Amino acid sequence: MEMNRLSKEAVKVTLFDGSIEEVPTGMTIYEILEKKLGKKGMRDVVLARVDGQPRDLFTALDKDCTLEPVYKNEPEALETLRHSTAHIMAEAVKELFPEVKVAIGPAVEQGFYYDFDYKRPFTPEDLKKIESKMKRIIKKGVRFERRDVPIHEAKARFESMGETYKVEIIEELEQEGEKEVSIYSQDGFEDLCRGPHIPHSGYVKAFKLTGVAGAYWRGDESKPMLQRIYGTAFFSKDELKKHLERLEEAKKRDHRRIGRELDLFSIQEEVGPGLVLWHPKGSRIRKAIEDFWRKAHLDRGYEMLFTPHIAKRELWKRSGHLDFYAENMYAPMQIDEVEYQIKPMNCPFHIAVYNSRRRSYRELPLRWCELGTVYRYERTGTLHGLMRVRGFTQDDAHVFCRLDQLDSEIHDILDMTLYVLRVFGFDRYDIYLSTRPDKYVGSEENWECATNALKQALEAQGLEYEIDPGEGVFYGPKIDIKIKDCLDRSWQCSTIQVDFNLPERFDVKYIGEDSHPHAPIMIHRALLGSLERFFGVLIEHYAGAFPLWLAPVQASVLTVTNRQDDWAVEVLQRLKAAGLRAQADLRNEKLGKKIREAQLEKVPYMIIIGDKEAEQGLVSPRRRDGEQLEACSVDEFIKMAKEEIESVFSMAIKGRNQD
Q: Which CATH architecture describes the domain 265-307+346-542?
């Protein structure tokens, strides 16, 4: 059969413009595209899609197919460039440190990394040497060459090289039934890899190694600790420069550093990794978030639920969490000889409330929300400040509705989601609609109905979205919203998921108009994702300089001398009575020092009180950016502050109406 396929004299290639070319079997993608685009047109082509799948430009075609070029300005091209640069880095490391064993080296969102097993930690001086070696490899224009080999041959090859991590990967592929694997080589360096890659190393125009960190092999603490060298690469030096500037800005905005400097939260080894302690100032912000969240829900017909932190383990078996999330759940505990489980999700509790009595179709929809704290086991190596923790509070909600109500409920949820995000200052996002995977529960009819409801809600809002085919969860389709912060970084926060699974598992029913039982549609919905992670995003988005409505201290009363203390105390009391979060600095220090310290605390308003203000019963407000406002009465300042706060919500509503 292989001989017959290769003996075919020509193949038909349908090109990106719809034209069909008949080319000799074995002709490469590069040759075909160059014939169509010319040498000049090929300058920005990095790889190609064959029948929609990415392929190297020097792939030889041996069957009829469709073919389209992938240009430098496409995300797939940048990912390929970075993956190839990771291989170049691995080659450089092996040349400089021959005893190194290589593990894996993928492209990631902001660049790439490669994991190495070496006898000592890599130093900054080592990274400079590696960069220099990489530049020489890039200058040579070393070609990336692929070959497919039988799996036993690949295993023997990497065993002879002493590359134990590659051997382990090959053995796993062998157990999965793979018969052959692909190996890429460049300049004598060989790596197990699926590809694709750039044609040669000269395509790398700008790169930088950005750091090194420890990483357990396969993320498992019981396995060896490797060294992960991070880097990034671009097609131009200007792009790299801009990226490095963003990285530098990101370091300044790191929520862990700012959280410590502003005394917002801490994570302490004595308490346990991944467990957050909210300090008073951080708790004030959390309360402001929660108060707004609750009001937004109550205004839209939701009711609050409170549920336990543990339940019988049997509940999680029935819900399916033990089947799908067991590795992220903590070990059970014995209570009265019955196994209990600390909760990883809130969903089964909300279903238990629903099933506490018989429901009628007239009651639906039921909209229930909860700020429910859950606990999930995350490996130590994956924990990262507030962004990845083991105990976190989900802003959970579940809607139980009839099929005929699904469209309007999805629309209202989406409308509410975008309003809430705008209030927090996020009006840029990427939206994805994930459709039915290969393995799913529920009927095709219900899947189609739910997917259409999600589509219609997005289109009714005039929102652009991408289809993520087959990436829905097994129990239903979903919308994911990734917000973009001030540095143009994406953060997954909001999700809307339609669920056919849990209502079936728990026999959730309502009595319909026909007096027969029917299964309701269950919608899972989170706006912020988790309070901890969202708080971390807020810290970095605002660099700790929160808008007035969120600031832990909204105004700080500063005296020039002790002569103004009595009036300052009265001002403080009036600010607090008006609902503002205020403090006073009555120390016998110079005013300049007090102002500088308040600015470092990122307090939105400093209320300056000197002899003139004390005598006339006034205050002199100063913004944290240094703008000095005219002296005014306390009531006038309170009115101004409240109008500033209220404008946040009114502008978000205005933005929603414009949408």
A: 2-Layer Sandwich (3.30)
